Every structure is written in structure tokens, then in C-alpha cells.
Amino acid sequence: MSSAEGKHITAPLTDEIIADLKAGDRVFITGVIYTGRDSAHKKLIGLIEEGKDLPFDLKGNILYYVGPTPAMPGQVIGSAGPTTSGRMDAYTPALLDKGLKGMIGKGQRNQEVKDSIKKNKAVYFAAVGGTAALAAKCIKKVEVIAYEELGTEAIRRMEVENFPVIVANDPQGGDLFSEGVEKYKQA
What we know:
Blueprint: E1 2-3, E2 6-11, H1 15-19, E3 26-35, H2 38-50, E4 62-64, H3 92-97, E5 102-105, H4 111-119, E6 123-126, H5 132-136, E7 139-146, E8 155-169, H6 176-186
Parallel strand pairs: 2-3, 3-4, 4-5, 5-6
Antiparallel strand pairs: 1-2, 3-8, 6-8, 7-8
């Protein structure tokens, strides 16, 4: 569903939802997303290489690159701002090949990840850094589902409502970062 403020989508993602997204679109996500940073990604890839089951089904799901702070009394979660996505680039193509459909983070992705996004008809969303406390207000429920020993880097299942992001890389090859640079050069 689209509105003047942006597109409202539900997670997990379907091919139909993703096909309608273009680089630069403002999007509000409602549904379930998962968290994972460097250490969790390394463990997931280890399981894939060993042919073992993952702690959650990647198919259609979104991974948010975040290491949330502890919740204060009366809160579901502490600050939950995005982590630099490039740190996950080495792991991302394998996860996309296993069915991951979306990622949320900050910063550009390398060419291998952008090619894998196109190949797997996935999407990369950018979240605005510096708004971690505001983003946390969109998170309604949080549960650690794997790697609790990693602390803030544990994998969490989060229920979100109207979580604000921007499409940075779409499945058609659109790239908000490179398009922005080109617009700047032409100005």
C-alpha cells in the first residue's frame, strides 16, 4: 500500500512486495524482522557450510544489522540504530541464496552483494543512523532466538510496526547511493 508518506509493507516479504520497490522509495515495515551482525553472520555461514539447520528460516525474511542497547524499565528495547552494512558483505550472498529477501543497515554494499540482490530478487533498505531511540519506538516485541552468548549481537526476532527505511538497492539494479552521486555531479 502506498501513501503520500511512503509505502507500507508487511514482513516477511513476498516477491510481489519486492517487485514494487524502487531505489529511493520511503517504506514503513510492519511484521517480523530478525537481527544479526558480524558474529551472528559468521555462525550462520558456518551452519550453512556444515549443512545444518539455521535457527530461523531465511525464506522471505529481513535481517536488520543492529546491536540494540539494553531496554530501560518500561521499554521493549533500548536504542536500535543500524550498523554499517559493509561488514556483512562477505556473508550476504550466501544468505540471499538461502532465501533471505531483505536487509536493513547503513551505507553502501559492494558489487557482489548488489549482483546477488538482483539475482535473488531481494532488497536492501537503508535506515537512518542517529535515530536509534526513535527507531526503537517502532519495535513492539523482542525475543532472543539464537546465540545469546553474543550479547548485543545475538539473533533476535522483532515485531515492528511502521519501521521507517529507504530502499537503497532494489532487485532491478537501482542503487540510491550511486544515483545520488550522479545527481550531485550533474548539479
